[in-house]
Amino acid sequence: MVEGDEITEEHLKKYSKGGGTRTVMEKDFLSGYLEKGISLPEIKKTVEKEAIGKVLAMTHGNIARAAGILGIGQSNLYKKIKRYGI
Predict the structure, then answer these.
(1) pLDDT tens digits for 15-28?
(2) What phi, psi does 23 have (nearest 5°)?
């Protein structure tokens, strides 16, 4: 497992029903944020918080599994949970 400071788009890949891969981020994902004038750091925080919350729900709160899916270490995940109040 690799410790990292942020979740990247690569961490958020999932399989679609068609057998190919697609990311959680949709094609027009950023337009809503950009139209509202939200900064890149704020967009990254929002996406990271949502991704962590969804993966924790998906793993029923299993930190080890969630960290593995997100591609980050458990201690880093704990820090992010605390930082975002998840």
Answers:
(1) 444 445 555 555 46
(2) -95, 160
For residue 74, being part of any structural domain is answered with yes
**Domain harbouring 28, CATH code:** 1.10.10.60
- What global pTM score does this model have? 0.63
Burial class (CB in 10 A: 0-12, 13-18, 19+), 38: middle
Structural domain span for residue 44: 11-84
Q: Which residues of 43-52 are buried (b: 16+ CB within 10 A; e: fewer)?
A: bebebbbebb
Q: List 22's β-bridge partners, or say none.
A: 14
Residue 44 and residue 83 in contact, taking contact as beta carbons nearer than 8 Å? no
Q: Does any domain span residue 70?
A: yes
Q: Is residue 25 part of a domain?
A: yes
Cα(10)–Cα(31) distance, integer angstroms: 20
CB atoms within 10 A of CB 80: 21
